[in-house]
Specification:
261 residues, alpha/beta, Spore Coat Polysaccharide Biosynthesis Protein SpsA, Chain A, seven-stranded mixed sheet, 12 helices, RgpF, Lipopolysaccharide biosynthesis protein
Length: 261
Amino acid sequence: MHPSNQALVVAHFHQDGQLRSDTLNFLEACQGSFKRLIFVSTNLSEAQRALIPDFVECHLRENIGYDFFSYRLGVSLLVDTSIGCEGLGETFDRLTLMNTSFVISDAEKFIKNYFFDGLSKLDSDFVGLTLHLSDGTIYPHLQSFLLSFGKRVLNDERFIAWWSGLELLVNKDQIIRNYEIGLSKFIDELGYTKTSIYSPAKSQMILDPMHGNFEEILDKYGVLKIGLFKINPFRLKLDPLILRAQADEKFRLLLVDGMEN
């Protein structure tokens, strides 16, 4: 994997302050792939913090504001160290924000198919792995567990101001409405292009591809949303996951770790 002029901010949360094995494997696999990698956690224990590779910048913050406040801290740290440049786009080709709400079954596959092959093939300002589709009542938006921004957005002062202007919201539905959906609206209003790397092959009843197309996304990108198998809000048949877990002990333990997140 060749070094890349990309920055990555990882927003970490675990109810017991643990670092999941797949998260650690991902961080280790990132060596040499990012110009800067910032890891922001709200509750990581000291013992777990010691496991993080030295090339990763680790920061702890108060457990408020959900992942968007971790993203905001990461963006702020990048801006603070880019003083003197016209914008973040003068320092980085892309900035990616991701959280730990999904398990990574294959770190190398994920890095290659998203960060390198995926992003390099798209000439778009705002990219995510998946786009939450619209039924006429929900604004179509890139899902905030994994978002990437190109040079034009990074050089726009309005983008930086959006992050610094975030207010503390305690309701998760408000976070989704104002910040996850709101960010896509904001980028659209600025006139930038918005694209998802993964697109469903055909129309579907479930508007969230991470649930409706979980098997295809797992196969291609090596990622799986924890909410799918922990909560299963759409009451999907999860037989493919059960069969994988029965045949692959490593995958079964990955699901167990996710359930305990």
